[in-house]
From TrEMBL:
<dbReference type="Pfam" id="PF13193">
    <property type="entry name" value="AMP-binding_C"/>
</dbReference>
<dbReference type="Pfam" id="PF00501">
    <property type="entry name" value="AMP-binding"/>
</dbReference>
<keyword id="KW-0443">Lipid metabolism</keyword>
<protein>
    <submittedName>
        <fullName>Fatty-acyl-CoA synthase</fullName>
    </submittedName>
</protein>
<dbReference type="InterPro" id="IPR025110">
    <property type="entry name" value="AMP-bd_C"/>
</dbReference>
<dbReference type="InterPro" id="IPR042099">
    <property type="entry name" value="ANL_N_sf"/>
</dbReference>
<keyword id="KW-0436">Ligase</keyword>
<comment type="similarity">
    <text>Belongs to the ATP-dependent AMP-binding enzyme family.</text>
</comment>
<keyword id="KW-0276">Fatty acid metabolism</keyword>
<dbReference type="GO" id="GO:0016874">
    <property type="term" value="F:ligase activity"/>
</dbReference>
<dbReference type="InterPro" id="IPR000873">
    <property type="entry name" value="AMP-dep_synth/lig_dom"/>
</dbReference>
<dbReference type="InterPro" id="IPR045851">
    <property type="entry name" value="AMP-bd_C_sf"/>
</dbReference>
<feature type="domain" description="AMP-dependent synthetase/ligase">
    <location>
        <begin position="34"/>
        <end position="404"/>
    </location>
</feature>
<dbReference type="GO" id="GO:0006631">
    <property type="term" value="P:fatty acid metabolic process"/>
</dbReference>
<feature type="domain" description="AMP-binding enzyme C-terminal">
    <location>
        <begin position="454"/>
        <end position="534"/>
    </location>
</feature>
Length: 545
């Protein structure tokens, strides 16, 4: 028998999965719900109108379908508006990682072929350094939180609020192919410049639905619903703030955007706006809980997804003692990102705090539509016994199709038809995954990737260094800190302080990310090697960690 195909009625609507459709229900069902940023308070009805104004402002600047609009901003209502308006007109939103070095930012702007750049006034010094070398940007728009316009040599086409005020609040957002690219951002790795990761409308909508289904179906713990108040504490420039702003908007919840992540300001917002749902890396949570103001606050009822780096049991227990509902989420830049959530069953909630913390710190169980496997080097799936380790490989409808303009790296990423995460893990009989290692030697410091090879290259250039190897040292506050093991040349008086200062100079010049200032240096007599003469980082970790 032939396959039974659906016959489309000529007058039927072929509903594309476009980002614009995430706005429909909130605007209709919760038009007066609030979106908060600094002194600004907008309703969802305002959001819909402002998205239309931004679309008109961008098209008046010449933005057309397929063009790229880049944003350099802190977490704000403006960023949320860009999350919708830019892809809704068929353009691509490039969320620039403002924590990269100026040279890396320049690379991503040119590589993404940005046409328009929206920039917060705080980042003008960076832009002034590189503006003469940007090849594709035609227009600049100022994002300004201050009452006065800063002095700058940048030829701005206008200021964001002024452009929106002059634009119509009506825009006909046409349908187009749901596989159209919607966003691009850049992720750093072990070597070379950052890689461009991209996602389509269809992928972002399906990720939103998948995350909403798993968070909305949770019972008693870790759920996200319409009565929540949402505030992201992971940057909107990084994997769309884990995709949660789209989920929050589709649910129609109150949203609070904090701008810069200053601990006293974040705690004030949590208290004043009654925030009940957030997500962050362990470093941020550690910083908040150790802040003097935290001791005077009631944080019970605050639900927090922890990701980006491993969460320690000590941090988890500290948060639980404060009444915080803390649990792990896992994913990576290439996966949009959420693949797993570590929810607790009702039975698990009856366990002791110490036993719960073990589960809350695990990587968790797969989301609906996520085909996650743990495989050995022969790509055979490992037993679900909590002991048999292998690499996490995955399929899901929201995974990136590859790296922008990098066919070889894309093929490696998807070798064998599954996306390779590079993370080594085990899975127990209940389906809970726990990451145990990484296949690459990249470090994750305060939620940011730091290349061990890049650091080794800098230190090796010192005339007094004979050998160097950089490994990650677990750290309660930062997740990891780079530890450089250095063999000095004979009769050379190189010091640990001197090498630390050398790396800091590179960071100050913008050659490498500023996270490397957390580097520790240890002078050693020799560095362990494998049988073929390569640096044995496994042995080094066992010896020095």
């Amino acid at each position: 028998m032939p396959d039974a195909l659906i016959t489309r009625t000529p007058s039927a609507y072929d509903y594309p999965l476009l980002i614009k459709n995430l706005l429909f229900c909130p605007v209709v069902d919760a038009p007066q719900q609030e979106i908060v940023y600094r002194s600004h308070r907008f309703t969802y009805r305002d959001l819909r109108q402002r998205v239309a104004c931004l679309a008109n402002a961008l098209t008046s600047l010449g933005v057309k379908r397929g063009d790229t609009v880049a944003v350099m901003d802190w977490d704000s209502h403006r960023y949320l508006e860009c999350f919708f308006a830019v892809p809704m007109i068929g353009a691509v939103l490039h969320t620039i990682n403002v924590r990269l070095s100026p040279e890396q930012i320049l690379y991503t702007i040119d590589h993404a072929e940005d046409d328009v750049l929206l920039v917060n006034s705080e980042f003008l010094p960076i832009l002034e350094q590189i503006r003469g070398r940007m090849d594709t940007v035609k227009s600049f728009v100022l994002l300004n939180d201050e009452p006065t316009v800063p002095e700058s040599h940048i030829p701005f086409s206008g200021e964001y609020e002024a452009l929106l005020a002059a634009a119509s609040d009506q825009f006909n957002f046409a349908d187009f192919d749901e596989n159209t690219r919607a966003t691009t951002f850049y992720t750093t790795g072990t070597t070379g410049m950052p890689k461009g990761v991209y996602f389509s409308h269809r992928q972002l909508v399906l990720h939103t639905m998948g995350v909403m289904s798993v968070l909305g179906s949770a019972v008693g713990q870790g759920n996200f619903h319409r009565q929540d108040v949402y505030m992201p504490i992971t940057p909107m420039f990084h994997v769309h703030a884990w995709g949660l702003p789209y989920v929050a908007t589709m649910l129609g919840v109150k949203q609070v955007y904090p701008g810069r992540y200053l601990p006293d300001h974040l705690l004030e917002l949590i208290d004043r706006e009654k925030v009940t749902f957030s997500h962050c890396v362990p470093t941020i949570l550690h910083m908040l809980l150790k802040h003097p103001h935290a001791g005077r606050m009631d944080l019970s009822g605050w639900k927090v997804i922890i990701g980006g780096a491993a969460m320690s049991r000590a941090l988890c227990l500290d948060a639980m003692q404060r009444g915080i509902d803390l649990f792990t989420g896992y994913g990576m830049s290439e996966t949009c990102p959420i693949l797993t959530i570590s929810h607790l069953t009702p039975d698990m909630l009856e366990l002791s705090a110490e036993e719960q913390a073990v589960i809350r710190c695990k990587t968790g169980c797969s989301l609906p539509l996520v085909d996650l496997k743990i495989v050995d080097s022969a790509r055979q799936e490992q037993a679900r016994d909590g002991k048999s380790a292998g690499e996490i490989v995955v399929r899901a409808p929201w995974l990136t199709q590859g790296y922008l303009k990098d066919h070889k790296a894309s093929e490696r990423l998807w070798e064998g038809g599954y996306l390779h995460t590079g993370d080594v893990a085990v899975r127990d009989e209940l389906g809970y995954v726990k990451i145990t290692d990484r296949t690459k030697d990249v470090l994750k410091v305060s939620g940011e990737w730091v290349s061990s090879l890049e650091l080794e290259d800098i230190i090796a250039h010192h005339p007094g260094v004979a050998e160097v190897a950089v490994i990650g040292q677990p750290d309660e506050k930062w997740g990891e800190r780079p530890l450089a093991l250095v063999v000095a040349k004979p009769d050379n008086a190189v010091t640990e302080k001197e090498l630390t200062h050398l790396v800091r100079e590179y960071a100050d010049k913008g050659v490498v990310t500023k996270q490397v200032v957390l580097l520790k240096v240890k002078l050693v007599e020799a560095i362990d090697k494998t049988s073929v003469g390569k640096v044995n980082k496994v042995a080094l970790r066992e010896k020095y960690l």
